[in-house]
Design a protein that fits this description.
The chain has 143 residues and is α/β, with parallel strands linked by helices. The protein has five helices and seven strands; from the N terminus they run αβββαββαβαβα. The longest helix is centred in the middle third of the chain and has 16 residues. It is globular.
């Protein structure tokens, strides 16, 4: 292994949260609800290590005309500025295509972060899934 790469690897393993045991984010399958909204549940940590993968996923979901995307962030444990950047990118792509992006979270910490960063009024935020999404999800779980 070249010296520069070896130093980079050593520096990464010395950073908190990057060593073995770092909890990455997870994405369940996106599912389209009656009425056209796509619900994407996220969980775990969305940070500088996981945001690139999330960005690729969100780019794929926001590429069509008029995307209607609901991101369920309730199971997310942590989000940093890279995660916020991924959400902002998704929002910009959705608006450019005349679509809609909703965030679902009941996290006081996340809502505080949105407020402090000036993003609270930029995103459409709900404490729970919209009724038509929740009802369809429950019906699908029973089937």
């Amino acid at each position: 292994m070249p010296e520069k790469q070896r130093r980079s690897t050593a520096a990464q393993s010395a950073r908190p949260g990057v060593a073995t045991g770092h909890r990455s984010y997870g994405v369940a399958s996106a599912h389209r609800m009656p009425g056209g909204a796509t619900v994407l549940p996220l969980r775990g940590e969305i940070d500088v290590l996981t945001a690139p993968e999330l960005t690729r996923r969100l780019d794929a979901l926001t590429g069509d005309p008029r995307p209607d995307l609901v991101l369920d962030l309730r199971p997310v444990d942590f989000i940093d500025c890279a995660g916020l950047s991924a959400l902002c990118r998704a929002r910009n792509r959705v608006l450019a295509r005349r679509g809609r992006l909703r965030l679902v979270t009941d996290s006081v910490g996340f809502l505080r972060m949105l407020r402090v960063t000036g993003l609270r009024d930029v995103f459409e935020v709900h404490p729970r899934l919209p009724a038509h999404c929740a009802e369809a999800g429950a019906a699908g779980a029973r089937a």
